[in-house]
Amino acid sequence: MAAKRRFRTVKGMHDLLFGKAGAFAFVEEKAREVFSLYGYDEVRTPVVEETELFVRGVGEASEIVGKQMYTFDDKKGRSLTLRPEGTAPVARAYLQNNWASGPQPVKVFYMGPYFRYERPQEGRYRQFHQIGAELIGDPGPYSDVELLVMLLRFLGELGFEDLEVGLNSVGDAECRQRYSQYLREFLEPYRDDLGADSRRRLETNPLRILDTKAPRERELLEGAPRLRDELGGPARDHFQVVCDELGRFGVDFEIDDRLVRGLDYYTRTVFEITSTALGAQNAILGGGRYDGLIADLGGPSVPGIGFAIGQDRLVDLVLKIPGARKRLNAEAHRRRPVCVIPIGGSYRRHGMELAQELRAAGIPAICEFDSLRPLKARLKQAARHDCQWVVLFGEEEEKSQEVVLRNFYEGSQETIPRDGFAAAVAARISA
Ligand code: HAM
Prior knowledge:
This protein is 40% helix and 20% strand. The chain has 431 residues and is of the alpha+beta class. Strand 12, helix 13 and strand 13 form a beta-alpha-beta unit.
């Protein structure tokens, strides 16, 4: 008989285990704390949506829709897609639930898994995670400023000090169309110098050529017209206020003329944040305005702005910040369970009761029930669980109505009264 095959995670997808999962929870809690200070509420949309939502929302010419979607037909032949991003689903929820009839703007945040069929590499996965926020219903520049200030507060609280904020305006649809035409005319004579991707983009979306990494193309673009010079009056004024006010609220940023973002719904303000000092080349997050998205999805003309943080990248970076790791370790340590070891088969119920009392007092506890194993082996188990405290209870302790409390880290042991023992353990843990 053939050996049974062992299963592994699908390429580009990873288990988030123990410390990593703890770090994920840590940044999620911080996000909840900070975003709610700014009046944002959490929402969760389904992982699967109609394919058409992303085709219309993110844009047919985008890399995401063109190449990266996990799309399949369900049993009724409906085309469905594992969400590659969170903005189009939130816009769908805005329309479906008639949020327009409630107080405006609507401010929501979300977190969860997203899927893109990309070539996996460091910091790029096929299942990845985002923490995002969207503010829908205010066209004004102060919403842009407030959103960025909130974002930087969140990153600051995680311990980031070396952030680079890149900012640009991609203007309104008309400025972009005009500019795309200029750019096309400018690049047309150099068509043969362009790579295959850029040649294709020359037809579909010339703007995306601006963020090319190819040295020859970058050189060519030095002489190209600037999108910023083509902004219409309202878009220019909007960008000016955003820049001025960001400065006033202490946000350091750089205007990056080449920043255009890879999703087609953006209008006006766009931004990305990187953390170079920690050795990351990839953006930790990206975002911007999408004043035409809700109308593109068949709704009224409602503006919006938002961002999404790549949580996997964020966590990898957080784990490199010495202060943040220390906080995380301290937190993990505080949650290490107390191990209760009943000595002898007839004391298993007592063990369970003691563990329950600890839990009732808010102390994590595990019980080593396997009383047939020698005590030494069970103590070893407790050590492998990294328990600092072990509670021992057997015949002698039942007689004296006491428990033995062992401090593994210090190698000491004491006997304390059975009655109220959980409070005594709590006092020692927090001492
Ligand atoms: P995005 O730039 O496509 O924007 O993704 C945001 C962030 O998600 C990226 O900066 C990156 O950190 C992370 N990310 C994207 N793809 C991957 C991947 N394959 N592996 C690991 N991390 C990845 C959006 O998704 C927009 N919905 C953001 C937004 C919200 N704009 C307005 N509102």
